[in-house]
Write a structure and sequence with these properties.
Blueprint (H helix, E strand, L loop, with lengths): L1 H20 L5 H10 L3 E3 L11 E3 L1 H21 L3 E2 L5 E3 H7 L1 H4 L1 E6 L6 E3 H13 L7 H12 L6 H10 L14 E4 L3 E4 L5 E5 L4 H6 L1 H7 L6 E10 L14 E10 L6 H4 L14
Parallel strand pairs: 3-10
Antiparallel strand pairs: 1-2, 4-9, 5-6, 5-7, 8-9, 10-11
Length: 284
């Protein structure tokens, strides 16, 4: 836990330094290159496309396969974790027990005139960032206040976000009034079987399959503790307003490990390693 806490503090410090220096990569330019070279493409583009869904072209498939192979070689082969592959379709009783049915939600605001929906915390951050871009019109204390709100935006409660929306008089992209933040459950629901008597969901994460098979995994490991299970597969989340490229989508590949009293022997040696993944030219 101390290693993860130290890593999180480091990432926060790095983000602060980037904000101070104004150094950040041009995500739009990177995404344009990826789409132009058919590394990725918006799904069903022939029929106007659907937000938050992407297809991988030949190069994208190769990159994705390489990342998954590296992940599997490290965690399954080198760290000797137990590999597991569960189904995407999950009975409602499982996600009810885990709390997802009742609590797996984001806060949403809606344009009262057009009906356009936004994720409340992300849209507030975008709204304040646009104001910060006009620093010449702001006082130092206002800049400090807005920056503080942006930094903590994903930790606010519904009541706190409601107060902030009113305080800053946040409007929609069309300048229309917005509703108060309300909860929106992100799980895709379906019915299992033709009679419709069995409620199900597309899994929002891969962990539940590992948890419900814990006893079988323990038996496979001859009852020995500690051990860890590893799984790759698809996850599904009905995102309110997916517009961050591959960073926030409605169907995505996940790679997850679930350690049981397990210590990663190699973790301290790689935890704080920073890897360059964007060309310098794209930062300009």
């Amino acid at each position: 836990i101390s290693h993860f806490s130290r890593s999180k503090r480091l990432m926060v410090d790095v983000k602060k330094e980037e904000l101070k220096s104004g150094s950040k990569y041009n995500r739009k330019a990177l995404e344009d290159v990826m789409k132009r070279r058919y590394i990725i493409s918006q799904s069903f583009q022939l029929y106007a496309g659907i937000g938050g869904l992407y297809d991988y072209g030949p190069v994208g498939c190769a990159l994705k396969a390489n990342v998954e192979a590296l992940w599997r070689n490290h965690y399954v082969l080198e760290e000797e974790m137990l590999e597991f592959d569960g189904t995407c379709l999950t009975p409602a009783c499982v996600l009810k027990a885990s709390g997802h049915v009742d609590k797996f939600a984001d806060l949403m605001v809606k344009d009262t005139k057009t009906g356009t929906c936004y994720r409340a915390d992300k849209y507030l951050a975008e709204f304040l960032n646009k104001i910060l871009e006009k620093k010449k019109k702001l006082k130092p204390e206002e800049i400090k206040e807005y920056s503080s709100v942006i930094e903590k935006v994903d930790s606010y409660t519904k009541e706190e976000l409601t107060a902030l929306y009113k305080k800053y008089e946040v409007k929609s992209e069309q300048g229309n009034p917005l509703s108060d933040p309300t909860e929106f459950n992100l799980i895709f629901e379906t019915q299992i079987g033709p009679q419709g008597g069995s409620r199900g969901f597309l899994r929002p994460e891969t962990a539940q399959g590992i948890f419900v098979n814990f006893k079988k995994l323990l038996e496979y490991n001859n009852g020995r503790m500690p051990f860890a299970a590893a799984q790759t597969g698809l996850g599904f989340r009905n995102e309110i307003s997916p517009r961050s490229g591959l960073l926030r989508v409605r169907e995505f590949a996940m790679a997850e490990i679930e350690p049981v009293s397990y210590t990663h022997l190699t973790l301290p040696t790689i935890l704080l390693v920073q890897i360059s993944v964007v060309a310098v030219s794209l930062k300009k």
